[in-house]
């Protein structure tokens, strides 16, 4: 049997080796870029584990290529605190000057993007862009202070109602103030951006000493930066950007795969595929493909979950829901376990990730679709169980009742009949002669009672 799998396995292994080789070649080619170039890295969309991994590796490659400057071109609504801090640590540890550039026109650097701008050696913006709104995301939506009513005075208003919210805001304020003092930028406005979620345009940011440069495009940015003194960890650094080529470090396969895997909806889908794959393996032991696929999907989902801020109560409800649905499939309870599993699964999905940032939350449509699919599978399981329950027994002597056969002898007292391919002793109250068709009425031990058809 294993010979059937040897050739496909060898083929898959060879494809994997060639793919790995080509990917390694791509990475080595990226590291062997001519020295002295300007490295351009793009931050687009929500900042998460995939973004931080892409930027951290980009910094390593830029240092290996002895880049003259790293430019972070940003257009982001913000992102996860852990990913943001990893990026800032890389910026602060960089021996190469780092420029954050909010571009193109119409872009923004909200929330985490503001912190990254403050951490960069030089902060720049294109016209018609904005930055700010740096309040921690977890309290940015549901816990914003409401407008005072007529009966309330200003003294009754509590902008932060819980100790946890105060801790988060105070921690974020201290963090961005430290970055502002390190780079000599406006610390007072930075604190306002955290505590009051204020946002400003490029011109105002320039007036308030929040940024250093307003540039229309990259060429304008390089022209204004040329000859500028920058202090990095390795000392004072004079930028010489005339005739410098730009190397665009685009996201590679690893970033794309990580972006997909850290999508909460994809995590849920992988978990569902894994669960049903294992159920199918239980139903068909030895089929291997469903079981292997299921285990791989569950491992990928587990890996992705640990990269995101996790709510353990939500995870417990999610696992409970999956367990109840599996129990319904294996031990049908006519919907009781299944319905409870769907409810627990849906609530757990809503609570699974501990962030109010929409890009890293499970979407309601995904939860509804997976819930409907699970409900349909549970209904199918219940129908199968009902059919099995109503089905007449097909094993044992009781299965003979109702079957037809042929009389082999006179059955006035006791004789023989052929039922299928077997010969049985039989008796009957009817006048049955050899060759007559008979039907089994009952069975006592090994003696059949038949009637004439």
Question: Can you put this structure into words, describing what you see?
Answer:
This protein has three domains: 30-140 and 165-252, 2-enoyl-CoA Hydratase, Chain A, domain 1 (Alpha-Beta Complex); 262-390, no CATH class; 397-452, Nucleic acid-binding proteins (OB fold (Dihydrolipoamide Acetyltransferase, E2P), Beta Barrel), CATH 2.40.50. Helix content is 48%, strand content 16%. It is built from 14 helices and 16 strands. A hairpin with a 2-residue loop joins strand 13 and strand 14 (422-427). Helix 10 (264-283) runs antiparallel to helix 11 (289-305) and helix 10 packs parallel to helix 12. The two termini are 50 Å apart.
Overview features:
16% strand; six-stranded parallel beta sheet; disordered N terminus; 453 residues; 2-enoyl-CoA Hydratase, Chain A, domain 1; elongated; five-stranded mixed barrel; OB fold (Dihydrolipoamide Acetyltransferase, E2P); alpha/beta
Output the strand order for the largest sheet: 8-5-3-2-1-11
- The global form is elongated
Beta-strand content: 15-25%
User: What's the number of structural domains?
Assistant: 3
- Architecture of the largest domain, CATH level 2? Alpha-Beta Complex
CATH class of the largest domain: Alpha Beta
Return Rg in Å. 35 Å
